[in-house]
Amino acid sequence: MPLASRCAAVLPCRTTQAAILFDALVSCSSIQGASWLLASGPLAAENQVLRLLADLADMPAAAGDCFVSGGSAGNISALVTARDTTRRRRVLAPYDRVRFAVSDQAHSSIGNALRIIGIEPFTMPTTDHRLTGPALRAALLADATPPASSQSRPPLAPPTPESSTTSPESPP
């Protein structure tokens, strides 16, 4: 069945004996997917499994992904991708204000990830534990603090030679 939003999700599962055995096997063999040179076999297998999952979810051929160690790592990877894509598509400066709408029911790892990547949450109250499009639209229209443009902030002045040296009277 196609995913309506075309987004994959973290699927938490209970630790099984098979998972523990597989983790031990991978740890003992020191397989890690940092580069094709170091782990071409596992990376090729990972890419095939990801393509299979994307095809089953009816995602486009250009869809890409990677396996991560858990939900927190998956959340931060997805949020960094969303932040960078948003900045590029909207032609924003690195410090322009960007907020992500999140449910008041969101997992704590979402808030932690947003703090780490420097994004402010736009926390939305939910009805029956659901964040809906109409509720988000209404909240955005009622929001009194829209994102500021980089043109509204004065540019930082470059350091002067005097500001980079210390005088004998001032502590270093």
Can you characterise this structure?
The protein is mainly alpha-helical and 172 residues long. 42% of the residues lie in helices and 6% in strands. The chain has 5 helices and 2 strands; from the N terminus they run αααβαβα. The chain has helices spanning 17-29, 36-56, 71-89, 108-117, 133-142; strands at 99-103, 120-124. A two-stranded parallel ribbon has the order 1-2. α4 links the parallel β1 and β2 (120-124). α3 (71-89) packs across α4. The longest helix is centred in the N-terminal third of the chain and has 21 residues, at 36-56. The relative contact order is 0.08. The model is unreliable at 149-172 (pLDDT under 50).
The number of distinct β-strands equals 2
Helix content: 40-55%
Bin the strand percentage. 5-15%
The Cα radius of gyration reads: 22 Å
Shape: globular
Order of helices and strands: HHHEHEH
What does the average pLDDT come to? 75
Class inferred from helices and paired strands: mainly alpha
Number of helices: 5
Q: End-to-end span in angstroms?
A: 64 Å
Task: Describe the largest sheet.
Answer: 2 strands, parallel
* Lateral strand order in the biggest sheet: 1-2
Low-confidence stretches: 149-172
